[in-house]
Structure formats: structure tokens, C-alpha cells
Sequence to fold (320 residues):
Amino acid sequence: AWRSSGKGVPPPPPRVMDSVPLLADIDFSDWGKGGEQMTEEWAIRTISSYLTTMLAGRNPMYFQELTVHLTQKCNLRCLDCSAMIPFFPSPRHYAPEIVTQSLQNLLSYDGVQFREICLLGGETLLYPDLEKVLEFSLSISRDEQVSIVTNGTLLPKESLLPLMRHPRFFVRISDYGALSTKKRELTELLEAHGIRYELDNYSEWYRDRDHLTAPCGEEEASRKYRHCTNIKYRILVEGRFFPCCKAAQMCQMGIFPATPENSIDCLTAEGLHERLRAGLRHFEQCGHIDICHRCYGIPQIHPDTMVPPAIQAAGPLYLS
Fold:
């Protein structure tokens, strides 16, 4: 193009923005108030997630993670569980057929992309059909990484190990100190079989035991929605796609109905892609969803409330 202009001078080279200088001086060795060392794998994923979120601002339909919930059951009762698991009165597993079909339908739509597919509970290793769902997830995914999250109290079944050696798979171990009774055995097992893993050794959590509040106005609901959905994670649970974890869990508990206003049906084949196109556009452009009026919001809105990780609830928990 510059030759045809007759000027004979090439245009200046494009400006390339390099993020490395921004990261070179970050020291993770004394991360958190407790001074626990942040593992290299977790640090890398944290930085990668941050950069992905920033860059994805140019592409609203590119997300860091698709979280696929497999079960409401867990062998811990963490009071500040972000997935609200201790609040489920009768926890159950989700049918593998619904998990796999909705995942296949969602990934068939080219208008949305994910960097990682994360299989989550509850405690993921309690899920009886994990082998089936993991094998399917690795086969149906394109370039996405596939992970499972576990709390370090259980070891995977022997039949899972060949699948877990897949180059796009890794295990995310939530390290809760003395509560994670099988952590050492688990890491040794994974290393012996050449399975990638990261150790998420939390030093603190956001206090996240307050979920419902008095109904708020439109402006406050929009503020909460912006904070919640600015995090580039989306949720797939029992065939429906949600913009945030709390919306998904509150609908699962029957506190709010799952409607086209707050979720997308990923199971019904008829009109699927148009429904996904319209629903994703709605999530991107709407000021908030109906649940935001009663939701307390994500804990980052209340940054002064920090607590030790995985405090165990003494008895049943209820939402009011």
C-alpha cells in the first residue's frame, strides 16, 4: 500500500504493547497476610487470568473460564464457600447426561470462547460419573484447558489417572491446611503419574456467608452486576448457563426461578444458537438481572471483610 502511494517511505511499524515489565517486579514469596508461599503454578494462572480479563475487554464473548458444576455434595462445610454448598438442604449429584449434552451444545456455538473448562463441585472427586464427564470434556473441547478442583481430602480413582495425564488437563488443589488431609499423598500420586497440578494455598478468604439482602434499587443492582460480571467466569449448571455463580446456586436452591432473564437454556436443541446469541448479548448489555436486587453481591464489594480460609460451619446453614 505504501509503494502505491508514490511516497516511497514505508509507514511506521505498529506499536506492540509488552506486558512483561509490568510483571517482572512482582514478588509472590510473601503473598497474603499469613505469609504462605504462592505456588508457581498458581501465580502463573493468576497472572494469566488477570491479563485474559483485561484483553477480553476487546471481545466481550471471550471468557477466562467456564465453570461446570457436577455436584452439590462435599465432605467439608466451609462457611464462606463461594458456591454456597453448605446452604443446600438436600445436596445431590447432577445427571451426567445433562452435563455432557449442555456442554456440547454450548461449545458448538462459535460466538463464545473459553480459555478453561473447570469441573467443580461441591467436592469434584465425590462425583460418581467424573470419569465419563472428564473424558467427554477432553474430547469435546477445542483449545481449552480442562481442570478439576479438589480440596485435598480424597484421592482420584485409579481409572481416572490415564485421563488425567492428558496434556490439556490439570488439577487445582485447594490447600486448606490441616483440613486437606490427603494433600501430600495426592501431590505425590500426581507427580508419580506425570499429571499437572497447582496448589492453591490460600492465606485468606473473603467473608462470603451473607448471600441475601433487603431488595435494593436499580442503581445498586447495576453496581453489583458490574462487579460480579466483570470477572470473566461463567457458570454451567444442570443445563443452564448463568452469568455468575450466585445466580446459578440461588436458582438451584429454588430461591429464584431460572428464567431467560437470568440464564440460558443449553439443553433444548431447537433455536439453540439464536437463544445463545440473544442471551449472551443480554448478559453483556443489560444493567443487571433480577437476582441482583436481593443478592448481597460478590465479596470484593466489601474488601474489608477478610477471614481465614475454609472455616467450618458448626451446624446447618439457612438463607433468609
